[in-house]
């Protein structure tokens, strides 16, 4: 089996671990920089070239697409799908997951708990915005933010008004979200693969920091999910159409509340915290999907129609 990992940096922990896990199982693995791929669009002959080579030999790809290059990265994934190559994450699900507003709407429709959230088209009714999420303190998030960047805590009503007005003046789109005080600067990351939670950790923000992201200096610890937390994580991943996902949630007085469902979750924090071989779980899922595709030609036709 030949697997391609779409990653801009082969030295990244997640990329290295996926390569190691695939090689350990005897699969041929290659890291491809998706930004250096050339897409050739032709009737009944979709093609991708990379460094002068035609990429027509992969059985599957594993997208590791950064948020800043979602548009082109998703186009490359979509082209592989048109070539009947199995993708660990479907291009449509990838694009959907990067749209914070759309993601929240999908999750709300799926019936999972969410922090109360408001989005407007640069509304001047800032005070009503603040009131609608329960007043201050509250969270202001840039729609394009990632890894904790572009997320701000407004401790007072006055501070919230100033922040929202400042973002609006810069034509920056934001969502306003209620602050879950009882979470105490911590959240849970559940790593889902093929309908199962294969690892979970609690991430705690450093002292004085409400953001729990490890990229922001937070720390991770092993946690056993409750039945409700596990069920919510699986429901959220399924609703987003993501067989591989990092589901982030808060523990609150009204149950688990989903913050985000990540389509390219990192492996370093979850593997180091849990001691589990998450990379092999991903490779096993990809291999299983390829085998199922080969046994069912109808699935191949379906992928082409949806591309």
Q: Can you put this structure into words, describing what you see?
A:
This protein has about 300 residues and is α+β, with helices and mostly antiparallel strands. The chain has 3 domains: about 110 residues, Rossmann fold (3-Layer(aba) Sandwich); about 100 residues, 2-Layer Sandwich (D-amino Acid Aminotransferase, Chain A, domain 1), CATH 3.30.470; about 60 residues, Dna Ligase, domain 1. It has 10 helices and 16 strands. Helix 2 packs antiparallel against helix 3. The longest helix is centred in the last third of the chain and has 18 residues. The C terminus is likely disordered.
Residue-averaged pLDDT: 89
Described by strand count, sense and barrel closure, the largest sheet is: 5 strands, antiparallel
Q: What proportion strand?
A: 25-35%
Main β-sheet, spatial strand arrangement: 14-13-12-15-16
Q: What is the helical fraction, as a range of percent?
A: 25-40%
What's the total number of strands? 16
Shape designation: globular
The secondary structure category is alpha+beta
CATH architectural name of the largest domain: 3-Layer(aba) Sandwich
Could you give the distance between the termini?
A: 23 Å
* SSE ordering: EHEEEEEHEHHEHEEHEEEEHEEHHH
Number of self-contained structural domains? 3
Radius of gyration: 20 Å
Number of helices: 10
Low-confidence stretches: 301-307
Which fold name fills CATH's third level, the topology of the largest domain? Answer: Rossmann fold
CATH class of the largest domain: Alpha Beta
Strands, helices and their partners?
Blueprint: E1 2-6, H1 13-24, E2 28-32, E3 37-40, E4 47-50, E5 53-54, E6 60-63, H2 70-82, E7 86-87, H3 91-98, H4 100-109, E8 117-119, H5 126-132, E9 138-142, E10 151-154, H6 157-169, E11 174-178, E12 186-193, E13 196-204, E14 219-222, H7 227-239, E15 244-252, E16 255-262, H8 268-274, H9 278-295, H10 297-306
Parallel strand pairs: 1-2, 1-6, 6-7
Antiparallel strand pairs: 3-4, 4-5, 8-11, 9-10, 9-11, 12-13, 12-15, 13-14, 15-16
Helix pairs in contact: 1-9, 2-3
């Amino acid at each position: 089996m030949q697997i391609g990992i779409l990653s801009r940096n082969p030295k990244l922990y997640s990329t290295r671990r996926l390569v190691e896990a695939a090689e350990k199982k005897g699969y041929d693995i290659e890291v491809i920089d998706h930004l250096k791929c050339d897409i050739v669009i032709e009737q009944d002959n979709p093609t991708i070239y990379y460094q002068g080579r035609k990429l027509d030999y992969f059985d599957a790809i594993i997208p590791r697409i950064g948020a800043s290059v979602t548009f082109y990265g998703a186009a490359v994934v979509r082209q592989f799908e048109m070539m009947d190559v199995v993708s660990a994450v479907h291009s449509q699900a990838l694009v959907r997951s990067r749209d914070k507003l759309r993601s929240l709407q999908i999750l709300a429709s799926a019936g999972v708990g969410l922090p109360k959230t408001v989005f407007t088209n640069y509304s001047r009714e800032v005070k009503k915005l603040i009131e609608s999420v329960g007043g201050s303190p509250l969270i202001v998030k840039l729609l394009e933010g990632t890894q904790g960047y572009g997320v701000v805590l407004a401790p007072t009503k006055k501070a919230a008004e100033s922040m929202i007005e400042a973002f609006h003046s810069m034509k920056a789109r934001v969502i306003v979200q209620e602050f879950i005080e009882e979470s105490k600067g911590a959240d849970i990351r559940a790593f889902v693969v093929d309908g199962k939670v294969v690892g979970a950790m609690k991430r705690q923000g450093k002292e004085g920091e409400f953001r729990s992201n490890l990229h922001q200096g937070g720390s991770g610890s092993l946690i056993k999910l409750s039945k409700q937390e596990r069920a919510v994580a699986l429901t959220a991943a399924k609703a987003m159409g993501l067989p591989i996902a990092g589901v982030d949630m808060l523990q609150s007085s009204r149950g688990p509340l989903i913050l985000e469902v990540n389509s390219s979750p990192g492996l370093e924090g979850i593997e180091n915290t849990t001691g589990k071989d998450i990379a092999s779980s991903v490779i096993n899922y990809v291999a299983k999907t390829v085998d199922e595709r080969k046994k069912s030609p109808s699935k191949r036709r379906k992928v082409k129609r949806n591309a």
